[in-house]
Amino acid sequence: MSAPIDPQDLAYEEAALELENIITALEAPQVSLEDTLALYERGKALARRCEKLLEQAELRVRTLDGEEA
Amino acid sequence: MNFVDSPETPWYIRGVSQIPLFQPGALTVSQVNRYVQDLLAADPLLQDVWVQGEISNFTRAASGHVYLTLKDSGAALKCVIWKTNAGRVRFTLSNGLAVEAHGYVGVYERDGAYQLYIDAIRPAGEGRLFQEFLRLKAQLEALGLFDESRKRPLPSFPRRIGLVTSPTGAALQDMLNTLRRRYPLAEVILSPSAVQGESAPDELVRALERLWRLEPQPDVVIVARGGGSLEDLWAFNDERVVRAIAASPAPVVTGVGHETDFTLADFAADLRAPTPTGAAELCTPDRADMRAGLDSLERRIDLAIEQQLALRRSGLMNARARLERVSPRRRLDNERQRLDGFGKRLAQQALTNIRLRRAALDGLNNHLNALNPLAVLRRGYAAVFNAQGLPVISTQRIHPGDEVNVKMADGQFGAQVQSVNVEGEPE
Asked: pLDDT tens-digit profile of B383-399?
């Protein structure tokens, strides 16, 4: 994983995908203790981001008028 | 022949020559009506005919049968639709409606009236329109615009959803409600357009092009409108609209009309939904399902960390145990214990040795005691010593008259040998 993005900037799909990858890594037996803790922290942050998106989202609607791009 | 002559037999069976110049009697009403019915029944056109006209005198009987009159500017035709056929009519019949009706013309002999027995009915002009639809479909299909291989998958979690629909229609509200409930995470971009009428095809194309010019573009586009007649939906069969949908950089989902309506736009789309609401559902995951999926992920991560920690705890305990076994203190204790062990064994051995020697000593002592001459004396024997103090153990060493000393257990006395008898072992 190179330069992980702040979870706050991730869309739901990205956060959920990274979370799944982290879980797969954590389920492998050869992880070092240091990596384990780091991964767990990141995973929890990603899960919180997903939760926030699910709970607080309000549908945004905008209308294109005329020939606006 | 009797039957030929019978007044019941139609004249054309009896033969032209048999037509009486003067009718002996008139035909009955039934005969006339039957005659007309037979005439009509034999006519191929009238047995399979489409008739166009305007509905009037529309009635639905209690029996379920429908009675109506089709008329044009100059004439009227009574019609009936039997209950089963009436049930299959897909649109509302009412007076004033221009329709095309299919069926056969027959005489209702009871009334002496002929009528059209309708088995199928459609709004006027639809027949022609439908032909046009089939022609266009074949044409565009040949260009490959409807090929399965062109169809793209929809994104699982669209962030921006484009909507091409009427801003005033019920379809828009239905779709927004559905999206609000299911997937409020998305942003909806409405690109409004008329959805029927002359200007509709152009407006639909421009509405799509407006969405493409956005930066960033929508992840998926819904093209939708509510139900209507073939004529109402006709804009969605327009070649310009079909081409625009096929050229869309983002996947297109159509939701046009009712479940049973198919337009060419539907064939060109990446996915057809039966209704506008259906389109909104097909584009998006349900928030409730996402919630459940997230819960599952959270459980998995907690479980994974638990297991990692448990693994380490048990590893730690193992290591500690192994460390303990080889630690200096442990070795010291071990050695101490060994020493103690040795000490004990040593002591035990020593004790044993001593006991053994004592026993041996005792044995020897006893032996010695047993051999003690004094013990012999205690048994009542006497020991004889000569004048030199030497023991006399053989009769050959003693002579009568010798002076001897006789030792007993508790003392001694002097004696003189009187006589000597030699018997027993020599020395």
From this structure: 889 888 888 888 888 88
In tens, the pLDDT along B70-106 reads 999 899 999 999 999 999 888 889 898 899 999 999 9
- Taking only the tens place, the pLDDT of each residue in B123-137 is 887 778 888 999 999
Residue among B214, B298, B304 minimizing CB distance to A69? B214
Beta bridge partners of B273: B255
- Confidence at residue B54, expressed as pLDDT on a 0 to 100 scale: 94
CB pair distance less than 8 Å for A26 and B301 = yes
Both ends of chain B: CA-CA distance in Å?
Answer: 188
Do A61 and B293 count as a contact with CB atoms less than 8 A apart? Answer: no
CA count, 13 A, side-chain hemisphere, B246 = 22
Chain A: residue nearest B181 by CA?
A59
Task: Kindly report each contact of residues A19-24 with a partner whose C-beta sits within 8 Å and lies 24 or more positions away, as own/partner.
Answer: A19/A43, A19/A46, A19/A47, A19/A50, A19/B297, A19/B301, A20/B297, A22/A46, A22/B301, A23/B297, A23/B300, A23/B301, A23/B304
- The answer to whether A40 contacts B301, with C-beta atoms less than 8 Å apart, is yes
pTM here is 0.61
Beta bridge partners of B104: B117
- pLDDT-wise least confident of A50-59, B44-53, B267-276: A50-59
The total number of residues shown for chain A amounts to 69
- Is B188 in contact with A64 (Cβ distance < 8 A)? no
For B257-317, strand residue ranges (E) read: 271-273
**What are B409-412's contacts with CB under 8 Å, separation 24+?**
B409/B374, B409/B377, B409/B378, B409/B380
Q: Which residue of B has its CA nearest to A15?
A: B294
Which residue, among B185, B187, B313, would best test binding to A if mutated, counting the most A CBs under 10 Å from its CB? Answer: B185
Residue A65: its chain B contacts at CB < 8 A? 192
* Residue B405 · residue B384 · CB < 8 Å: yes
Q: B176 at the A interface (CB within 8 A)? A: yes
Q: CB of B39 within 8 A of CB of B106?
A: no
DSSP B322-371: HHHHH-HHHHHHHHHHHHHHHHHHHHHHHHHHHHHHHHHHHHHHHHHHHH
**Cβ contacts of B204 on chain A, cutoff 8 Å:** none
Residues of B within 8 A of A36 (CB-CB) are 305, 308-309
Q: Which residues of B touch A26 (CB under 8 A)?
A: 301, 304-305, 308
Structure ipTM: 0.86
pLDDT digits (tens, 9 = 90+) for B308-363: 888 878 888 888 888 877 778 877 888 888 888 888 888 888 888 888 888 888 88
Q: Cβ–Cβ contacts within 10 Å for residue B324, how many? A: 10
Judge: B213–A62 Cβ closer than 8 Å, yes or no. Answer: no
